[in-house]
Amino acid sequence: MRATAAAARRLVSHSPLSSSAFRSPWARHAHAAAQSELSETWSSTRSPSSRTGPQWIFLGCPGVGKGTYASRLAKFLGVPHIAMGDLVRQELSEPTPSGLKLKQLMNEGKLLPDNVILELLAKRLEAGTVAGETGFILDGFPRTRSQVEALDKVTDIELVLNLRLREDVLVMKCLGRRICSGCGTNYNIANIDVGGENGAPRIFMPPLLPPPSCANKLIIRADDTEEVVRARLNFYAEESKPVENYYRAQEKLMDFDVIGGIPETWPKLLDVVRPFMPEESLSVAAA
Description:
alpha/beta; Rossmann fold; three-stranded antiparallel beta sheet; 13 helices; globular; disordered N terminus; plastid; kinase; chloroplast
């Protein structure tokens, strides 16, 4: 059984979707909703939803590990992991004026306009509705206050996980990222071992190296240079505070500090989200 609202509020102090519609109105209103009257436009799209599963959000700086942990949790919950970064990269791969413009913005470390993000998400959510998906974990969305308000008009988020990690470690992680050009699997060649400062714990993250079949096919993302990484972190810091404050005021935000690699961090993350997981997911998580 998922946690009650009261339990959710208690857990938020430890360090947090009923559902509404994501149907065809997303596509009809996504572009208009990104304009100055975004929230008002989307308020008329709210209707009963067929989505009955968990609907969570993962926040956090680029490189903190949102994709890794959101993907794992999505498997337990039986819902899709919807990563805005993946949706954007898919669009980038298209040799269209839109794809070329997105590539330029990404290489400059800039955030994409709301109308672009909302249209990409609308398309993905509509496809999920048609496929009978019961929930989702959003990764990399919302990024701005206007996006938060748009999302709030069409669904009720009950759990927002805010992953945090030291900036120097984030930069090392981002610069170590590699992608197999053959299968698309992500790896990381960085070997991070940073001592604690001012009583902070040591952070140890061994490299996630590829198997021999991928070793000669590794590529670096165009936006994984130190200059672009630091620009992205600065942009994120400026844009994320209103988002975090919004959900914190609603007592839905749970801050979670990444303490190391997957073996150290994963069990602790499971512990803090376990009260919000459906019963059928708990047996899987315990395995």
